[in-house]
Every structure is written in structure tokens, then in C-alpha cells.
Amino acid sequence: RACRQQPADYFVVTVPLKILQNGALDFSPALPTHKQEAIDEATVWDGFKAFIEFSDAFYPTFIGFDVSPETAGQKLYYDAAYGQRSNRHVLGLFTVGIASRPYQQRSGTDRLNYMLDGQASANYIQHITQDWNAEPHINGAYIYDHENWRRVKTLGESVDDKIYFAGEAYTNGQNWGGVDAAATAAIAAVQELMR
Fold first, then answer.
1. Cβ distance 132 to 138 under 8 Å?
2. What distance lies between CA 76 and its chain's CA centroid?
3. Which residues neighbour 154 within 8 Å (Cβ) at sequence distance 6 or greater?
4. Which residues in the chain come in under a pLDDT of 70?
């Protein structure tokens, strides 16, 4: 809505799916019903990420956590400096789905205390966090890993050879939800547009 309305022969939509679900873009004419239903019905996971710097690497390279049910989200800690030419000790936290909510529901010192205890508190230097839901141009993490592939394929389909979609949620239904899927979708959209 912040953009001026400009007619175009073709355009590529690359906004996150949650932005379309929230109605931040208006299409004139409206998108076909099956396309709008796919947009409305797809699940976008909540997401939270943090990087915490410590004075010592007291943690393993990777720690995965069980989320129940398995289809409800993911949570893992990982050594973000692993394999890097760095003498800093940075632990990454990645959460999506229900696993991200305890971090999103807290702020400030309460959130920090929730992330730290024991050796973490003793070795803490600094941290940064990103709540993807609170990002004004994102509003969520990425499309649900267990989404129906037919719905994902519909999300990736062009409209009337004029509107093309590119991004992690707009694919051919074989792969979605990651950087590689977003790049592949962008290539496919441009190739289709150039035909």
C-alpha cells in the first residue's frame, strides 16, 4: 500500500507469504480464487533466532531438541563460529513453530535469562536476537515444512502470464522453505517470464 499504483506488463512478487496473508498487497484485478485460497490456507511458521557470544566454547557443535509433535516446529543450538576463521565463541539458536513462542513471549532481561543458565551465564559476553514475526516486512519465518505439496505448487504458479512468484514459498511443490528453494524459484520465475 505504500507504493504508488503503477500499471505493468509483468511483475514478479517476491514478498514473504505472510505479507500476502496479511493483505499488505492489493492485486487489481484480484488473484484467481484457487491462488488466493492457497495463500490463505498455507501455514507460515513463527520464527526466532539468536546469536550469543561467550568467552569460552563450553558447548558442542550442535544440539537438537525434540519438539512434540515433530511437525509442530524445530529448535536447535549450533556453534555459529564452527569452521570460521574466528577466535570468537558464538552459539546460534534457531527455532520455528511452537518452539519459538517462549522466546517471542519474553523480552529484555527475561528473554536473556530464559536463554542462559549455568556455564552460559558465567561465560556470557553479548547477544543479538531476531524475532521474525516482529519484522515489519517479514511477519514470520518460512512456510511449514510439512505443507501440502499441491498447495505449494499453486503458490508458485504464475497468473495469466503476467504475475510471477519467487521465493521460498513459491516453488514447483518439490522443495520449499529454504534459501535453495527461494533461489530455484527465482530462476524459474525469470525463465518463465522470458519465454
1. yes
2. 15
3. 34, 35, 38
4. 1-5
Q: Which of 193, 155, 160, 187 is nearest to 171 (CA)?
A: 155
| Predicted structure pTM score | 0.86
Q: What is the pLDDT at residue 1?
A: 47
The whole-angstrom separation of Cα 138 and Cα 190 is: 23
Question: Distance between CA 129 and CA 188 in Å, rounded?
Answer: 33
| Distinct helix (H) and strand (E) counts, the chain | 7, 7
Measuring CA to CA, how many Å separate 69 from each of 65, 122, 150? 12, 33, 23
Select from 140, 49, 141 the least CA-distant residue to 90.
Answer: 49
Compute the Cα dihedral for 40, 46, 51, 56 and give only its sign.
negative
Dihedral sign (CA 80, 176, 102, 15): positive
